Write the structure tokens for this entry.
Amino acid sequence: MARVFISYKRDVRPDQDLAHALVKALKVSHEVFIDTSMLVGERWVERIDAEIRQADFFITLLSPFSVNSEMARTEIELAHQLHAQRGHPVLLPIRVAYHERLPPPLSSYLSPINWALWEGPEDTPRLLEQIDKAMTGGTLPGTTSSVSAPAPMVPHASCAMMRPPLPSAPLELDESLDGAMDTESAFYVVRDADSTVMKAVSQKQGTTVTIKGARQMGKSSLLMRGLAGALAANKRVAYLSLQEFDSPSLTNPDLFFQRFCSSLGDQLGLADQVGAYWQKPMGSSQRCGQYMSGHVLRALDVPLVLGLDEVETLFELPFGTDFFGMLRSWHNNRALPTTPVWKKLSIVLVTSTEPFLFIKNLMQSPFNVGQTVELGDFSVTQVSELNQRQGSPLSPRQQEELFALLGGHPYLARKALYLVASGSMRVEELFLQAAEDRGPFGDHLRHLLFRLGSQPQLKAGLREVLQRGVCPNEDVFIRLRSAGLVRQEGAVVLPRCELYRRYFRERLSVS
């Protein structure tokens, strides 16, 4: 009898129906956990964490709903980490009528693994046979005949096809709320940081720009618009999300630098010369630098803007310092009269974590040179502007109530307005259910609470903030702020918004 954990997006169909069909069939021979089996009042964070850690098999249902669920992504990440550390649970991905390439970071976790495809109830018996074979030593079929082949590490909209943002765009209420926004989205709110980034990437000589901000502030969307602006200025662009590199790359520095170079060449349509450069008797970061200057930059007749997203992925890796030291040397090389080719390169870095926590040698950091822009929450005026673009689903009084609840949180404000404007939820219901686990923001809130459960220091720090308005440990405060959980007003540290205060006071048992 094996222990089986089923991860899925609750309250949507066909995901929930398939999950319950799997439970009914598998529990005959196995011990199966699904979140609906938890008792009322049970501490669900601890239970889910324990069940994933004890599981022999982790079945994840992949659909357009689940791949954009923060909670589902967190469960998959934990299962992937446990499997890498000790070989179990075995991940069994099931695509639920889902034929698209997986978004990062799920692509790095699941793309190398065989999967099964379920199109409808008629496929359930066949799927159960495939799962049974996989659980007795086989693998899922994993054919690629009906699913898009893995794409190179590029943004969802190919950089080559990006166009500069239009003054206006058609209003589409079904636009995705997750990930980087389309560069022509009518719902993109321009902030002061936009002009700084646009000006930097448009100037003739190369520069280095760092975009900082907490989670879900719109950093990746700003990067995409910056790359679109660079294309409009007749520059070439390349984009890499470091979150998309797979586990072998992130554990083998030589492999990482090779794939970094290969990805750049692929995006720019250049011949692959990585093998030749890796014959040179020098370190990987030096080979990478020579590849950039001697092959990439010399082959281009126009400047290049390199956008690097999710760079905090490397902060705690052993070779992270070497990589960031390399970027710093590229920045410094622009000043050398002997290597003018480096003046063609601009670098835009995106991070949600304070780099100085991990890069102690300031001379090896690319984050304290060039320009830095920090994204903050929306202002009252910007939330009002977003409401108008959605067709004004909220009255002026309701706008004030929303701002008091969310404090201008970009992602949550967009989600709230979308739910009301699309008719998915009445505004009265949204406010009434806001801080509930199954409410409009439940997936987001449960994800944050689950993350805290695995980091006792941060959990204790947030409890201090809620009880006393302080966070004595500077390192903990910076991590909480980077996670988007707290903000500072003078000497007082507060939850980022009223929604977080309500939700975490109850879940962390703060009196």
